[in-house]
């Protein structure tokens, strides 16, 4: 197994630098399919129990929901396949451990990693394309059953490489009781950032409580870039066959959106949400804040938080009225290792097929708030009943299915995204704290991103 040592070194460095990063987008320009995918006979002819290892970063309630699915799979395949699922920490930690495992030839059968790491994973070329496994194993997962947005998200140059496990969409979580106390009625249109900023200030003025909080995570601002009609990276969000050279966060509608949020922090209308989002979740769950732009996947934590007030999810507030719904997805996908035995590859593929089946995805979605990646869930009677009782889930699905296929909604394709996010978050925190102006912070973020993109292009030699 020949590895690109330069990329491995960069992957580890980017992970260390990008320890604040969380969720956003896909792939490089040079990926091609593999013809090494084994078929069903590889597993059928193996003797004894085939072991499959899967590494992930699902913690808390989401981790428990994931392990429950693993246990169900093991029970159904007892004596033939046994899966060991291992939580490896946050996504940057998981990526660091994975790159170390590649060097030591001890990589897991399946890696479940966030979308922002897809560029590095594809450049490493250590995974079997999902398209090849699906073709070689026609009785298992049908890739056409995967929703368009997440399926396209992990398609590189026409080849689907990874299978999405968890797909989230950014939404606006609102505390209806607190809004009512502030005189913001349920008929108020909160579909734009301007409307949310106005209402957040009204909450602070009328109730003395905070109007706004967000996780210190660049994904939110990448979505405000998308809903401003801008590509986050240029040229073309890296989707034109050329690797990106710059980001646009310090220009146009994206800059305006960031400045409005910074002002909320400067005016004490917003409260810090923390790098991992735990402070935002805690503040919102405790009824101390009215608005929380956050991923749909926060639902599991909100349920566990025991909120006693009425809350719901609304569509993500757009930077520009013209681009409502132009959001980018987040989440994580499963990458199947080339280095596994043929029997383990097929067993791993069967696990991926099980985890993305309609039944599993319905169960997973209800427990976590992630959108079911399998669109056949929509025809389930139990899902219809669930949606009637949990209207926020309709918002999740409608938004992720309704976002147009365009470069601004696709996200930036670069292995440097983890480093970019880390640099952006650092600068945004400085602006929130008032140690830098919004202009200074955004210009510094853009300069840091340009260097990260340049360094990555130099490392991969393209």
What would you note in describing this structure?
- The chain is of the alpha+beta class and 462 residues long.
- The protein is built from 20 helices and 14 strands.
- The protein folds into 2 domains: 5-167 and 329-379, Periplasmic binding protein-like II (D-Maltodextrin-Binding Protein, domain 2, 3-Layer(aba) Sandwich); 170-326 and 416-450, D-Maltodextrin-Binding Protein, domain 2.
- It is 47% helix and 14% strand.
- The two termini are 22 Å apart.
- Mean pLDDT is 90; it is low at 12-35.
Give the full name of the CATH homologous superfamily of the largest domain: Periplasmic binding protein-like II
Strand content: 5-15%
Number of domains: 2
Rounded to the nearest angstrom, the radius of gyration is: 21 Å
Q: What is the CATH class name of the largest domain?
A: Alpha Beta
Quick structural gist:
The chain is α+β, with helices and mostly antiparallel strands and 462 residues long. The protein has helices spanning 5-17, 41-44, 60-76, 91-103, 118-124, 130-136, 148-153, 176-181, 193-207, 218-226, 252-266, 278-285, 299-304, 342-355, 358-368, 381-389, 392-402, 407-410, 417-433, 438-460, and strands spanning 50-56, 81-87, 110-114, 127-128, 155-156, 159-160, 163-168, 170-175, 210-212, 233-234, 246-247, 289-295, 311-315, 330-337. It starts with a helix and ends with a helix.
């Amino acid at each position: 197994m020949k590895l690109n040592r330069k990329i491995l070194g960069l992957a580890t460095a980017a992970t260390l630098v990008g320890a604040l990063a969380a969720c956003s987008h896909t792939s490089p320009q040079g990926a091609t399919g593999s013809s090494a995918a084994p078929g069903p006979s590889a597993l059928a002819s193996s003797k004894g129990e085939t072991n499959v290892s899967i590494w992930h970063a699902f913690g808390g309630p989401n981790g428990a929901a994931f392990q429950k699915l693993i246990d169900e799979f093991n029970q159904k395949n007892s004596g033939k396949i046994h899966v060991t699922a291992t939580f490896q920490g946050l996504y940057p930690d998981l990526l660091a451990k994975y790159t170390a495992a590649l060097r030591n030839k001890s990589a897991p059968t399946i890696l479940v990693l966030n979308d922002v790491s897809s560029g590095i994973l594809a450049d490493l070329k250590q995974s079997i394309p999902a398209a090849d496994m699906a073709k070689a194993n026609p009785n298992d997962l049908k890739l056409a059953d995967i929703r368009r947005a997440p399926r396209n998200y992990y398609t590189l140059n026409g080849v689907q490489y990874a299978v999405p496990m968890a797909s989230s969409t950014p939404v606006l979580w609102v505390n209806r009781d607190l809004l009512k106390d502030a005189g913001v009625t349920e008929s108020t249109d909160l579909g734009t950032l301007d409307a949310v900023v106005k209402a957040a200030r009204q909450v602070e003025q009328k109730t003395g409580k905070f109007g706004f909080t967000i996780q210190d995570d660049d994904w939110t601002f990448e979505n405000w870039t998308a809903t401003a009609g801008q590509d986050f990276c240029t040229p073309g969000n890296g989707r034109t066959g050329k690797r990106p050279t710059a980001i646009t966060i310090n220009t146009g509608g994206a800059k305006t959106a960031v400045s409005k949020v910074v002002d909320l922090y400067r005016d004490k209308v917003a409260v810090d949400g923390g790098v991992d989002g735990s402070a935002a979740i805690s503040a919102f769950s405790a009824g101390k804040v009215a608005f929380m732009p956050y991923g749909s996947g926060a639902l599991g934590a909100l349920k566990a938080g025991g909120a006693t007030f009425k809350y719901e999810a609304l569509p993500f507030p757009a930077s520009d009225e013209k681009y409502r719904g132009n959001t980018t997805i987040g989440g994580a996908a499963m990458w199947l290792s080339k280095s596994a035995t043929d029997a383990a590859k097929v067993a791993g593929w069967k696990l991926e097929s099980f985890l993305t089946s309609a039944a599993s995805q319905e169960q997973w979605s209800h427990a976590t708030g992630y959108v079911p990646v399998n669109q056949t869930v929509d025809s389930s009677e139990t899902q219809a009943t669930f949606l009637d009782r949990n209207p926020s889930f309709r918002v999740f699905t409608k938004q992720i299915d309704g976002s147009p296929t365009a470069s601004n909604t696709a996200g930036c394709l670069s292995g440097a995204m983890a480093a970019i996010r880390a640099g952006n978050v650092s600068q945004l925190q400085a602006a929130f704290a008032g140690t830098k102006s919004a202009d200074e912070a955004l210009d510094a973020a853009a300069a840091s991103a340009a260097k990260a993109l340049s360094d990555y292009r130099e490392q991969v030699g393209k």
